[in-house]
């Protein structure tokens, strides 16, 4: 009986010690996790939240505006809408909901400007400043495309060319960022930038630099329009790039990333 009581006492003591050891390791981890969660909601992450929210707002606003305009045009010409240049959706004369398309571009461009301001203010290294400046260029060009749709042909050609060159520089800088500061450029962001650079390069090659416009496609002859297809691809890639950048910045804020300057 004495040996049994002593064994029970030893087992109880051992269990208590194990529980104490487990608690000693679990409690600090839980406290650290809670502290990190509270830290990411602190005011010093306001710029991160500004970048993420404004980029997502810009991408979704443009996506909704383009989708509504495409649907309205689809009711008239069917699938041919996808074989016409995307900027024709802003034509006030022929596009039923051109005002929605153009307004969505103005709002989306404004959101991108705010997000690039936040990105510029973040301490993510000097190279991120270049990307922020290029993004500011793209955002301003998007606003001007909404202000000067294809009805204002000369101005539209100028701002559309500005958008094309801005995206080319933006993708090129993002790809370069992968090799200079790998932690800042995630693999999805890098791959999207590669596709975007290829698309922008193709459009630059197809652009007539004397008129700052593309050779019109002959839709009546059933000709397949590579320019239109590439423009739609470029538009989609730009929106996807913005979304991926937003999640990349969010991931960096959660990891408390501090680059080598």
Short account of what is shown:
The protein is mostly helical. It is 74% helix and 2% strand.
Describe this structure in words.
The chain is mainly α. It is built from seven helices and two strands. The chain has two domains: 37 residues; 209 residues. Helices cover 74% and strands 2% of the residues. The relative contact order is 0.11. A two-stranded antiparallel ribbon has the order 1-2. About 6% of the residues have low confidence.
Sum up the structure in keywords.
261 residues; mainly alpha; 2 domains; two-stranded antiparallel sheet; 74% helix; DUF998; DUF998 domain-containing protein; membrane
The proportion of residues in beta strands is under 5%
* H-E order: HHHHHHEEH
What is the 3D form? globular
Total discrete domains: 2
Find the count of extended strands (DSSP E, 2+ residues). Answer: 2
Mean pLDDT, as a whole number?
80
Rg measurement, Å:
26 Å
Give the strand order, joined by hyphens, for the main sheet: 1-2
Helix content: over 70%
CA distance, first residue to last residue: 71 Å
Instruction: Indicate the low-confidence ranges by residue numbers.
Output: 25-40
- Based on secondary structure, the structural category is mainly alpha
What is the count of DSSP helices, taking H or I runs of 4+ residues?
7
Main sheet: strands, sense, barrel: 2 strands, antiparallel
Set down the secondary structure blueprint.
Elements: H1 2-40, H2 46-77, H3 98-121, H4 126-147, H5 153-180, H6 187-206, E1 207-208, E2 213-214, H7 226-254
Antiparallel strand pairs: 1-2
Helix pairs in contact: 2-3, 2-7, 3-4, 4-5, 5-6, 6-7
């Amino acid at each position: 009986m004495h040996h049994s009581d002593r064994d029970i006492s030893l087992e109880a003591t051992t269990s208590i010690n194990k529980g104490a050891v487990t608690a000693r390791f679990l409690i600090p981890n839980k406290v650290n996790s809670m502290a990190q969660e509270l830290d990411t909601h602190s005011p010093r992450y306001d710029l991160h939240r500004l970048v993420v929210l404004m980029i997502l707002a810009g991408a979704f606003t443009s996506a909704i505006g383009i989708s509504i305009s495409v649907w309205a045009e689809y009711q008239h010409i069917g699938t041919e809408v996808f074989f016409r240049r995307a900027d024709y959706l802003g034509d006030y004369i022929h596009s039923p909901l051109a005002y929605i398309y153009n307004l969505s571009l103005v709002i989306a461009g404004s959101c991108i400007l705010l997000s690039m301001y936040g990105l510029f203010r973040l301490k993510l290294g000097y190279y991120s400043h270049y990307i922020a400046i290029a993004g500011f260029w793209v955002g301003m060009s998007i606003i001007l495309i909404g202000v000067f749709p294809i009805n204002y042909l000369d101005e539209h050609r100028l701002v559309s060319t500005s958008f094309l060159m801005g995206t080319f520089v933006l993708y090129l800088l993002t790809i370069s960022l992968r090799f200079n500061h790998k932690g800042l450029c995630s693999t999805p962001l890098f791959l999207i930038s590669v596709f975007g650079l290829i698309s922008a390069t193709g459009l630059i090659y197809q652009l007539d630099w004397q008129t700052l416009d593309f050779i019109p496609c002959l839709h009546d002859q059933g000709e397949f329009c590579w320019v239109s297809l590439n423009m739609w691809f470029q538009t989609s890639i730009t929106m996807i790039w913005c979304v991926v950048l937003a999640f990349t910045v969010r991931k960096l804020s959660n990891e408390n990333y501090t680059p080598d300057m």
